[in-house]
Amino acid sequence: MSSVPEGDLARRAASGDQEAFAEIVRLHQQAVFNVAYRYFGNVKDAEDAAQDAFVRAYQFFDRFDVNRPLAPWLKRITVNVCLNIINADKPTASLDDDLPPPKDPKPGPEAQTATRQRERRMRAEIVGLPPRYRAVIELRHFQELSYTEIASALKRSQSDIKSDLFRARKLLAERLIDLKHETSD
Amino acid sequence: MKHLTDNTLNEYLDHTSDERSRKSVKDHLNGCDACQTKLEELGKIFAELQIVPEVALKHDLTPGIMTRLNLETPVRIWTRTFAAQAGVASGVLYWLASQLIPFVKIPQVSLSKAVFELQSWFAQLLTIQVSLPTWQIPDIASLLPKFNYQAPTINLPFSTVHVISLTVTVIFLWVVANFILLRSRPQVQR
Question: CATH number of A1-99: 3.90.550.10, 1.20.1250.20, 1.10.1740.10, 2.60.40.10?
């Protein structure tokens, strides 16, 4: 963990200091990678998207208010980068067969296996959603933004955001119910 | 009985509805099993999304990103530092010019005379005839008409000591300025 306050790092990075920006990357790469991983479900595409997001953040750092926390801004950039990659129809890999290990693993091998199965199923369902639904699920459930903040981040109306979010949840609920039926048959 | 809409249930779980609406939803849910079941189904999605943990990165992305920054980001010359340096340099130049201009003596030549001189010079230029053997290089300078032109002069009350001091100062400033510009510093590529 860096001993330099984040605000100082942001100020230095905003004036073009690459060493400060490298420190910001080290501090936030885990969070940014996870946003992209929830989006693509595979390590390769998630790493590429995380790199794109940091490069874009560097190019637009002069627009960032250095008095605000960096993480939410970087995560929002990552969501937009992921959306752009998908909208550009760039070929992406399929969901990883083996999930990377969790950052904070839970104790107990049996509990771990059950949790990993549920986690994998949920990740697959998220990745299977249409891109715009994925974006609102990410911003609402993982980044805990309000409807207004999501609308601002995605440059869409609040009513559109609400509509997509509620439909995404409904779709997830239906798929999870279907899955339960399949496993119980 | 009119059931709660999907929007109302979602807003209730998102805690975005106001206190009055929340109370009205709670009252309805207490007496409606169908809406209670729908709310529980929706609530399960919230819980399932909570179980998706952060995964660990297998390797540091920093070197790759820093390499891409140098390759992909255009060099931005117009930085704040550069603007400040350009401002100081312009100020010094303005000051020097304002100090020197009073000493510049421009010869008094009337416009009509200057135009006449120029016309005469061009007229003479057209009359030049070169007929020399091929092995001899023509002396063009001696063939050109004489132009009666008096250059502006600077009448500074400088002694030799002044000139030497000024030269040394300029050389010193040039060396210092180059040191500042070329010294090792964090890159300003953006």
Answer: 1.10.1740.10
